[in-house]
């Protein structure tokens, strides 16, 4: 969402539940005031985006503790339609405003979701955007959020969150009943076997057989059952993936 106006508050958005992420991108507003006065950016479950210009906060951009992140929004070339009351010819125009900054962040979020093996929750998206943001070249004492949005860093953070490494355990994994979680591991050329262990699992876990092959992604499915019905810890389950006769690099994704 890329609009802003002055008001005290906006109705709260429902918090995301399950695997579906739902949130708003809110332009912080162009009134050079605290974002607490701007709707919808001042609402809960909204990522408020401030505008930068040449590495600093744009003079018109709203600011304050409620801003989550900043993005370029000064003199941005954008598409438009020349018609005013009816469709005209397509064209381009240069605009400035937080309404130009918010789409930058929305685009980064789309990139993040496109590489995510598991759908990202709104809370995860916001946390990754903030943790990977770059410091503004010019200080923003008024408050410009975590910094300048960093597309490359945010996408890398998503990939790292679902990439398994050798002998490194992932703890507290949980999925909705009947749901799945996906993880990937890169298998070097010459690897003879890959073993995935699932110790102390609650519920019913089923893992399919997989074989390593060059330039191919293999999947092993792990389905979560209701933990309310299965209180007893299941025995450790191990999946061994064998390579073909010719050593080759491959990737295994587990869900």
From TrEMBL:
Stored SUPFAM superfamilies: Subtilisin-like (SSF52743)
UniProt superkingdom: Bacteria
InterPro entries documented for this protein: Peptidase_S8/S53_dom (IPR000209), Peptidase_S8/S53_dom_sf (IPR036852), Peptidase_S8_Ser-AS (IPR023828), Peptidase_S8_subtilisin-like (IPR050131)
Name of the molecule in the record: Peptidase S8/S53 domain-containing protein
Every Peptidase S8/S53 domain range: 27-147
Family designation: Belongs to the peptidase S8 family.
GO biological process: proteolysis
UniProt key word Cell cycle: no
Region (Disordered): 223-255
Keyword line: Hydrolase, Protease, Serine protease
Highest classification ranks of the organism: Bacteria, Pseudomonadati, Pseudomonadota, Gammaproteobacteria, Lysobacterales
PROSITE patterns tied to this protein: SUBTILASE, SUBTILASE_SER
Basic residues bias locations: 227-243
Molecular function per GO: serine-type endopeptidase activity
């Amino acid at each position: 969402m890329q609009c802003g106006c002055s008001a005290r508050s906006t109705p709260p958005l429902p918090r995301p539940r399950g695997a579906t992420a739902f949130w708003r991108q809110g332009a912080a507003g162009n009134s050079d005031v605290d974002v607490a006065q701007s709707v919808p950016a001042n609402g809960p479950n909204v990522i408020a985006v401030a505008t930068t210009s040449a590495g600093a906060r744009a003079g018109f951009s709203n600011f304050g503790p409620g801003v989550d992140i900043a993005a370029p929004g000064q003199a941005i070339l954008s598409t438009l339609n020349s018609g005013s009351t009816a469709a005209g010819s397509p064209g381009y125009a240069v605009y400035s405003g937080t309404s130009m900054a918010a789409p930058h962040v929305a685009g980064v979020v789309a990139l993040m979701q496109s590489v995510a093996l598991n759908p990202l929750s709104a809370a995860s998206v916001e946390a990754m955007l903030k943790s990977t943001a770059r410091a503004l070249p010019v200080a923003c004492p008024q408050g410009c959020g975590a910094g300048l949005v960093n597309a490359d860093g945010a996408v890398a953070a998503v990939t790292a969150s679902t990439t398994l490494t050798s002998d490194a355990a992932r703890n507290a994994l949980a999925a909705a009943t009947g749901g799945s979680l996906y993880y990937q591991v890169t298998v070097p050329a010459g690897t003879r076997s890959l073993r995935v262990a699932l110790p102390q699992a609650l519920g019913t876990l089923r893992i399919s057989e997989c074989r390593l092959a060059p330039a191919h992604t293999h999947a092993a499915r792990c389905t979560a059952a209701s933990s309310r019905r299965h209180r007893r810890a299941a025995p450790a389950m191990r999946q061994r993936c064998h390579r073909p006769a010719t050593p080759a690099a491959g990737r295994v994704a587990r869900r």
